[in-house]
């Protein structure tokens, strides 16, 4: 999951919860433009009244300012308050972020069950990174009973949305045979795809795995990876 201010441009386009940020004169959009210029004080001054009036995008963006101390004094509790406000009203990125805050105990009391609950809400709403994080909660049994089938399912959802962490974790699951029979070709496929996205350690994992594979398995893994990547991660089984 990631530190610091998220990419606001992506949030505006993808996970703003359907609000019309592109309308002319929209103070939330104007705040975003100020943020792009590095004028965080103006961004804060535009977002705060909108957040207090109930705008979920403004509440989330305001929370990120408090989380990073841009334009305001850094304040984890205040960050959590605004992010929670947005999350409770269905802002998907805020739900993922609130799950992270509970996982880390930042601005809130550390609580794995709450971390999992919020991450699951975001994942079920279609957030790909949240799906990967949720898979890890099930894999480790943090805040939820350990469930390798559920972990693998959420890792696959993340991987098929292009999340390299999900790809890497599927490589681990198939390589170790956790909840499934060991499948070295499938494990290598996912490690190699994660490596193409520059996921840390994936290339080394793929190389180490090759030492345990037959030439036929390596050829199969290579073809599976080619087909999976060519299908935009749809044909990967």
Q: Can you write the helix and strand succession as a string?
A: HHHHHHHHHHHHH
Number of strands: 0
H/I helix tally: 13
Structural class: mainly alpha
Shape type: elongated
**Main sheet overview:** none
Termini separation (Å)? 26 Å
- Contiguous low-pLDDT stretches (5 residues minimum) are 1-24
Can you give the mean pLDDT? Answer: 90
What is the beta-strand fraction? under 5%
- Rg, nearest Å: 20 Å
Helix content: 55-70%
Describe the structure.
The protein is mostly helical and 237 residues long. Helices cover 67% and strands 0% of the residues. Helix 3 crosses helix 4, helix 7 packs antiparallel against helix 8 and helix 9 crosses helix 10. The N terminus is likely disordered.
Key features of this structure:
single chain; 237 residues; mainly alpha; 13 helices; elongated; disordered N terminus
């Amino acid at each position: 999951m990631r530190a610091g201010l998220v990419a606001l441009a992506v949030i505006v386009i993808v996970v703003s919860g359907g609000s019309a940020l592109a309308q002319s004169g929209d103070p939330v959009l104007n705040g975003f433009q100020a943020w792009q210029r590095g004028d965080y004080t103006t961004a804060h001054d535009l977002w705060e009244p909108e957040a207090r009036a109930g705008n979920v995008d403004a509440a989330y963006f305001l929370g990120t300012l408090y989380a990073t101390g841009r334009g305001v004094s850094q304040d984890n509790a205040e960050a959590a308050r605004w992010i929670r406000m947005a999350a409770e009203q269905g802002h998907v990125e805020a739900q993922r972020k609130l799950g992270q805050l509970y996982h880390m105990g930042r601005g809130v009391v550390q609580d794995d069950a709450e971390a999992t609950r919020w991450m699951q809400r975001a994942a079920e709403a279609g957030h790909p990174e949240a799906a990967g994080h949720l898979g890890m909660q099930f894999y480790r049994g943090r805040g939820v009973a350990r469930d390798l089938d559920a972990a693998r399912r959420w890792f696959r959802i993340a991987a098929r949305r292009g999340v390299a962490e999900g790809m890497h974790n599927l490589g681990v699951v198939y390589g170790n045979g956790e909840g499934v029979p060991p499948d070295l070709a499938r494990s290598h496929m996912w490690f190699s795809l994660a490596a193409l996205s520059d996921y840390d350690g994936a290339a080394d994992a793929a190389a180490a795995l090759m030492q345990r594979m037959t030439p036929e398995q390596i050829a199969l893994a290579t073809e599976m990876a080619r087909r999976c990547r060519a299908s935009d991660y749809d044909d990967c089984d």
